[in-house]
Amino acid sequence: MSSEHVQGTVAAGFESVREEFAAVAADEGGDYAAQLVAHVGGERVVDLWTGPAITGDSLTGVFSSTKGAAHLVVALLVQDGVLDLDERVAHYWPEFAAAGKGGVTLRDVLAHRAGVVGADDGFSTEELADDRVIAERLAPQRPYWRPGTAFGYHALVIGALTGEVVRRVTGRSIQEHYEERVRKPFGLDFYLGLPEELEPRFLTTQPMLPTPEQLAELEANATGPDSITGIAFNRNHPKAPELWDLPNIKLVRQLSPASVGGVASARGMAGMYAAVISGPEPLLRPETAAEFAQIHSIGDDLATRNHNAFGLGFAIVSDDYPVLGQGAFGHSGAAGSLAFADPRSALAYGYNRRRFAFPGGAAPENARLVRAVHAAATA
Questions:
Q1: Domain-wise residue ranges, the chain
Q2: Is 188 left (phi over 0), alpha (psi -120 to 50) or beta?
Q3: Tell me, what's the pLDDT at 222?
Q4: If pLDDT is split at 50, 70 and 90, which confidence band does 63 have?
Q5: Contact 205, 244 (CB under 8 A)
Q6: What was the pLDDT predicted at 366?
Q7: How confident is the model over 68-85, as pLDDT tens digits?
Q8: What global pTM score does this model have?
């Protein structure tokens, strides 16, 4: 696919990013639909899209990239002095102390160290859509490892856990705080709760289509539904929805569980991180951003069974993309999305794709695109 099939604009000096995006599209094939946006110093320098049905204004489910928006709210409340990272969760939410969780701190939860990656019986679709219900189910749940001794990705529940703390302290949900303090003031196309009038702009997520070799790899590494991995990804519920299908369920888009329910464009994702680090009054003070971007958990992840690195609510994206500076933070999403801020280069990045990427998480092409964007931004 040549670069003329790529729509949108780039600033002078970022032409190489357009070429790399076109090369990715050619490698991915004719049904590839994606968006790529970047800001440097608060200025949008890349705004590209390609593929059938998609435009720069299209919205898709961004899965765990939602965690970045949700935990930006937590960072703001910590910055305001409303929340204390080292306070016990049970101080804010007494019911959470059950089954040996009394000593778990908010910092432990944000670093995926609380050990409550799911529930013994799993969650129905309706339960997964509602953070309040998830929190109610998890309060009495015994942890799957001793809190603080290891870490595992709380893929579907971390936003419900942190969200219940936020609700208990402020009387309002993460989603409400996000709308008031982040999305609306900056006019971001990144929604925690998609308004009905924007439904026509929503594109469904398309399922992953693994090659025979990829399918064999999935089967070889399969874990049981009652393993920690199975529980963390809700495979222990008999009627669990397919992960790729979650944003296609209207209830999920409406309630927007803070772990996985966000709907956005790449413009919205990059714009959010630009607001976090750029402008005369960035949303986060440098010291707040540095604390949330500090490595808290790194190594073997008990839930995903691979290497991971987490700060507080955010992923340490420089662990996967070493070209980025120390202190870069953001989050990826299961279908392939990725969004982050790199304060050292003043770069904010957003990438979104419609078809679920193998094997899930940040799509492999992000490595090429991040290198191209960073090289142009620092040239």
A1: 3-67+188-377, 70-176
A2: beta
A3: 81
A4: very high
A5: yes
A6: 98
A7: 999 999 999 999 999 999
A8: 0.97
Token code pair at residue 297 = 């958990």
Task: Evaluate whether 64 touches 262 at the Cβ level (below 8 Å).
Answer: no
Nearest to 157 by CA among 122, 191, 182, 192: 122
Amino acid at 73: V
Length of the chain: 379
- For the chain, how far is it from start to end, CA to CA, in angstroms? 26
From residue 370, how far is each of 93, 199, 242, 268 by CA, in Å? 40, 30, 29, 17
Q: What is the pLDDT of residue 358?
A: 84
With a CB cutoff of 8 Å and minimum separation 6, the contacts of 222 are none
CA atoms within 13 A of residue 128's CA, in its CB half-sphere: 30
Question: Which CATH architecture best describes the domain 3-67+188-377?
Answer: 3-Layer(aba) Sandwich (3.40)
pLDDT band at 27 (very low <50, low <70, confident <90, very high): very high
Are the CB atoms for 328 and 289 separated by under 8 Å? no
Q: Which pair of structure tokens corresponds to residue 346? A: 């003043």
The pLDDT score that the predictor gives to residue 5 is: 86
Which residues have CB under 8 Å from 129's CB, separation 6+? 249, 251, 252, 254, 255, 257, 261
Percent of the chain with pLDDT strictly greater than 70? 99
Nearest one of 316, 339, 346 to 328, comparing CA atoms? 316
Q: CA–CA separation, 284 vs 328, rounded Å? A: 13
Structure tokens at 73: 């709210």
pLDDT at 2: 46
Whole-number percent of the chain with pLDDT over 90: 92
Give the CA angle between residues 10, 16, 18 to the nearest 5°. Answer: 50
pLDDT of 369 above 60: yes
